[in-house]
Structure prediction request, 444 residues.
Amino acid sequence: MNVDRTSSIVHRRPGIGVSGFVIAALSFLVVQHATADEKPASDFTAENWTNAVGFAPDLKAVPEYKAGETIDSRTWQKIAPWIPDSIAGLIEKFGLKLRTAAYRPIHPSRGYIRATAANLGKARIVKTGKSIRKKGIDGYLAGLPFPHPQNGDEVAWDYNFNYLGDDGGLRFGVLWIDADRGVHRTEEWRWNYISRAMHRTDIEPLPEIPSFAGRQIQYASLTWAKEPYDKAGLAALFYRFEEPLDQRGYLYIPRMRRTLKLTFGAKGVPWNKTDMLYEDVRGYAGYPEWSYWKLLGKRTIMAPMHARIPLGADKTALTFDFDNAPHWNPFMDWEPRPVYVLEERSKEPFWTCPYKRTVMYVDAETFYIPIKEAYDEEGHLWKVAINAYNDSPDMDTDPPPIALTVVIDIQRTQATAFPTYDVFSNAGLEGSRFTETYLRREGK
Prediction:
């Protein structure tokens, strides 16, 4: 596979204060390239998952690295090859500290591994050109569609069908944070979802929920506000489809006792007036067909994939440095991770999508996006999103749970943090819980 070596170097907004020449030179040393002998394995196991579908981190690139130390503005240069430019900027400008840990591999559930092996080679990319409505994949059934992805489209589809379990849910906080004032507003929400109404691998019914599959519904999401009291009961239900259609659903407004039929997830729309756009959820929440994708390279970077974040509404003071500006820096473990560096550019015009482009660091084992960079129309770094994950309770049966998301607006010096209070997966959620009737009941 031929990739552009220089394109994997992320250009920073002037003023962040990191030497572009030094970072470019060091990053060049650790961009890893696929070779002609990289082929998907014919047999997939939990033990060989890393090399069967992706690649392992290059742990020889930084001999000075020692697990257990804290990297800060005085010491980050010694592991500079493992620090994306955006994270280096957060370290230098905003005092982010990386509590380091040793690399540990991650594999999906046994069911997902079996599905990947059973369906190897069946999925293929369909060229969609400028269309956002033409389906961009054919032959996909379940599991990881493209082990050892060879281009940006394949990485994007691997992310789209990564292992989240067949269903799950979480209770989470929303914290609006200003670099000067600190936390100035908080809310609490609940989110339940069927992540795989089709293409299921773990929970009966397999491989799909008939009532959803008949309507070509691939995903269902239900969120509702718990606090503050004047917002409690506001609830939203939407469906994502097998075809790249607009995500449709309902919004329940308790004060009006009315349900409104809406389109959800349009590009450029903030979620709940936060710094996170709908397409930023978990890294990218749009359809792959809505964007152009380019694989910039392969790297080893520091990312929070075994973050050791304590969960709970009473644990946020242990999770964030609220006492010191900018008040949003999280306390968590960062480890060297193998990533695909993926560039995304929207097919839609700029007036519907404020990002000129985004760069996503896609973990090569989980195909999660722990770090995302968003750039404005002038090409300046605008936002950095960090998604941190804790250890799976049992990798054979459950995915790593998301522990927090923080979206930092570099230009406005503000952020929105989303700490997880509790989380579950593969609970066997019934389709009847994702209906307009249930939406109204939960909203009361």
Notes: The CA atoms of residues 264 and 323 lie 36 Å apart. The longest helix spans residues 20-30. Residues 1-188+287-424 form one domain.
